[in-house]
UniProtKB/TrEMBL annotation:
Top-level taxonomic group: Bacteria
Record SUPFAM superfamilies: alpha-D-mannose-specific plant lectins (SSF51110), SGNH hydrolase (SSF52266)
Protein name: Lipase/acylhydrolase
Assigned keywords, A-Z: Hydrolase, Signal
Keyword Signal applies: yes
Taxonomic source organism: Caballeronia concitans
GO molecular function: hydrolase activity, acting on ester bonds
Residue stretches making up the Bulb-type lectin domain: 417-525
């Protein structure tokens, strides 16, 4: 008889009159699954390249947070036919195309060195034991063994040199024969995400927008896009938050393009809400391109687009930081009527009733004197009256309120074996063992609270709530599980009695007791043995 079936027979009905017994969900029976958080990303679009054939591509990605393991996502979203790649290597970068040889690690796909990505699809590598640096450069190298069609899935205008070499030299630290930007400019090809295992990560924030988010006018190879500068501020403040750039130059809310990607309203679900451990999104400059792209929409339609994204994000428990639209008086398509629309949209975004969880006021950060400035301050203008320079991008990052991304206060550790007093609890990966050590209350890496006995979960919150990052025994007498935004995602039953403590008992039952010593809530997981 397997362990799970044996446990079902051992669980007694002693406390089922007090609370319905809950069986463990097989999907969450193992509580040690890694919790992934995004540290780098590039939004997929269509690049300009002649295709690849028996060549190695080495790409440099700049991390936000670090980690003890990584995984890679490769995309063929816009491909017309399957693409094969493999012999993937990750290593810390030394300089240029060179890597630190001692850090080099190979990545596989279901144990295989090569993988074929179907047209329209993507693949994720197996977990790679690799020490990802904080705010550091990681080289991702892979071999493309056979001819691929031109115009690959990737990220145009990557602002980072990419190196192409003949043959298979993925594991070569010197990258012999490599040439910078040989295929069609400093773009990213096929590579979409780098995620890390970081047990202390609060979550990830996605910067979603167009060329200003993409950092189009920033200095190449210097990582001076405003999402990069925001990551620097977060790390300097001791905040363990991944920052993911999902800006695409030329992107807008309503229409698709090749190099400018799918419409913002179309790609939001994939490019934002499907990111690893996403907790926040900053919706930035797509609407600017709608205003200057010909046939500008009304302020009502643009405000409606923000409302649609806010609704989708909140349904996924993701908070939304709305960015005001930056000024652009001076470009050929600027008109007073378009300016009136921009001002109306910004008034909507600054209105506390709009549903945004915060406002990143880029217009105020970059504009000249006055609250309704219609042009860039000269110190922040790249020269085209549309894009901020390095100083302007830093000003955007500096305008962000870091309190938006604050984690929960540290929970107090249990003060005795098996026992939780009010205010005590567990963080991700922590446990509370019964006094005889047979049973363990665990907040697993998957974010669910579970009681584990002989390596299997006999009870879990996975059937009744969403994952969280912290469990506390509250003053109202409930055991409560919170996500990184501080939202309660699960709690035990309430009672009118004065509650004293919670106890992980030697019989496998987790019980909340009143101050008079009477049980007022229990998991009903008594194990007879």
């Amino acid at each position: 008889m397997d362990t799970a079936n044996r446990l079902r027979r051992l669980v007694a009905p002693a406390f089922c009159a007090l609370l319905s017994c809950v069986e463990a969900s097989p999907a969450h029976a193992q509580t040690g699954a890694p919790l992934w958080t995004g540290t780098w990303s590039a939004a997929p679009a269509i690049t300009s390249d002649p295709g690849f054939d028996n060549q190695t591509i080495r790409q440099i990605v700049h991390t936000s947070i670090g980690g003890t393991a990584v995984r890679l996502r490769f995309s063929n979203l816009f491909g017309s036919q399957p693409v094969t790649l493999g012999n993937v290597h990750v290593a810390q970068r030394a300089s240029g195309a060179q890597t630190v040889a001692a850090t080099d690690r190979a990545a596989t796909f279901n144990g295989q060195a090569y993988v074929t990505i179907p047209a329209g699809g993507s693949v994720v590598s197996d977990t790679v034991a690799f020490q990802a640096p904080v705010l550091g450069d990681v080289a991702v190298s892979f071999h493309v063994p056979s001819k691929t069609p031109p115009n690959s899935t990737g990220h145009p205008a990557g602002l980072q040199d990419v190196y192409i070499a003949p043959g298979d030299v993925s594991g070569d630290a010197s990258f012999a024969g490599g040439v910078a930007n040989a295929a069609g400019g400093p773009s990213y090809y096929f590579l979409a995400n780098l995620d890390v295992v970081n047990a202390g990560a609060t979550g990830a924030v996605v910067a979603f927008g167009a060329s200003i988010t993409d950092g189009l006018a920033s200095t190449p190879n210097m990582n001076r896009r405003w999402p990069n500068r925001l990551a620097e501020r977060l790390i300097a403040a001791g905040m363990n938050v991944g920052v993911l750039n999902q800006g695409i130059s030329g992107n807008n809310f309503f229409s698709d393009g090749d190099s400018s990607g799918q419409a913002g309203l179309t790609r939001f679900q994939r490019d934002v809400l499907q990111q690893a451990n996403v907790k926040w999104v900053i919706v930035s400059d797509d609407a600017v391109n709608n205003l200057i792209g010909g046939n500008p929409p009304t302020a009502q339609r643009l405000s409606g687009a923000f409302e649609q994204l806010i609704s989708q994000a909140h349904a996924a428990h993701v908070k939304v930081i709305c960015s005001t639209l930056t000024p652009f008086e001076g470009i050929a398509r600027w008109t007073p009527a378009i300016e009136d629309t921009r001002q109306a949209v910004n008034a909507f975004l600054r209105d506390p009733s709009n549903g945004c969880d915060g406002v990143l006021d880029q217009a105020a950060a970059l504009g000249g004197p006055g609250d309704a400035s219609i042009a860039y301050a000269s110190a922040f203008n790249s020269g085209d009256d549309l894009h901020p320079n390095d100083a302007g991008l830093l000003a955007i990052a500096d305008a962000a309120n870091l309190d938006w991304f604050a984690g929960l206060p540290a929970v107090r550790a249990p003060s005795g074996c098996g026992r939780l007093a009010q205010g005590e609890g567990l963080s991700i990966g922590q446990t509370l063992a019964s006094c005889d050590g047979r049973f363990t209350l665990t907040l697993g890496r998957d974010g669910f609270l579970a009681i584990v006995y002989e390596g299997a979960a006999i009870w879990s919150t996975s059937d009744a709530g969403a994952p969280g990052v912290e469990m506390r025994f509250e003053e109202d007498g409930t055991l409560s599980l919170f996500d990184s935004n501080g939202a309660r995602v699960w709690q035990s039953g309430k009672t009118d009695m004065a509650v004293g403590y919670a106890y992980m008992q030697r019989d496998g039952n987790l019980v909340v007791y009143s101050t008079a010593g009477k049980p007022v809530w229990a998991t009903g997981t008594v194990v007879n043995k």
